[in-house]
Amino acid sequence: MTTDPFDSWCCYSGRGVPTVAAIRVLIVDDHPVVREGTRQVLERDPAIEVVGEAGTVADAVRLARHARPDVVLLDLALPDQSGIEGLPQIRSAAPRAAVLVLSAYDEEDYVVAAMEAGAAGYLLKTMRARDMVGAIQSVHQGQVVLHPTVAEKLRRSLRANAGEAREPRLSPRELAILRLAAKGHRNKEIAAMMSISVRTVEGHLSHILTKIGASSRTEAVMYGAAHHWFPPAVPPDEESDACRQLR
User: Fold this and answer.
1) ∠ CA(177), CA(178), CA(184), 5° rounding?
2) For the chain, N or C: smaller number of CB within 10 Å?
3) Torsion from C-alpha of 69, 66, 58, 2, nearest 10 degrees
């Protein structure tokens, strides 16, 4: 008798035949009751299709490779390894998926570690159901999403690091570069999109970190997200045109 490799995790098509535009979501949490409740909340929205559930990182990686989700909703407290440790593995299994952390931990260390590992956003389990749906739609569009509580803690922390009472101001070019960094573009890609040199991009990023009081690119992106500096996603062609205008 052959053992089905998918026996330990759940994969299904959701509510009947999904629409073409449906966002495919994978739920990863070690508590079945939490997974069930989250699935019920998400499936109320016809624009979302829950393609599966997993309770461990290992199962999430296998399911991500098989189900091809657009968004992975990931808890950090998992039995085989932490969600932060598993995040790069999940992203490798589903490179096109945005990973959205849904956690009970609001400490800055967890948030920074998750974002540095490649998360597109960080939510708390205290959030309202309708806000969760909106967050999923936002990260699917390429935006960075932070729970308001997390965003406020980050603002206070980075403001203290900057040693300023007022909000730092970025130039239009610096803001454009930070927005592209938030979308995951590397320095070389940003340089090509803006028709400037890689060294110029690096210089602007250095100025951005100094102004914000951030110690890394990830912290700078998180600060921008906390201050709503990143607008809704635009088509790639329009984005490139807008960037070139800031040469």
Assistant:
1) 95
2) N
3) 150
From-to residues of CATH 3.40.50.2300 in the chain: 10-146
Do residues 20 and 49 lie in contact, with contact meaning Cβ atoms separated by under 8 Å?
Answer: no
Please tell me the distance from the alpha carbon of residue 205 to that of residue 221, in angstroms, as a whole number: 11
Q: What is the separation of C-alpha 17 from the centre of its chain, rounded to a whole number of angstroms?
A: 27
Instruction: Give the DSSP per-residue string, 116-152.
Output: HTT-SEEEETTS-HHHHHHHHHHHHTT--EE-HHHHH
Domain 164-244 has CATH 3.20.20.70: no
CA 1 from centroid of its chain's CA atoms: 41
Residue 202 has pLDDT above 70, yes or no: yes
Question: Domain 10-146: what homologous superfamily?
Answer: Response regulator (3.40.50.2300)
Residue type, 5: P
- In tens, the pLDDT along 84-101 reads 999 999 999 999 999 999
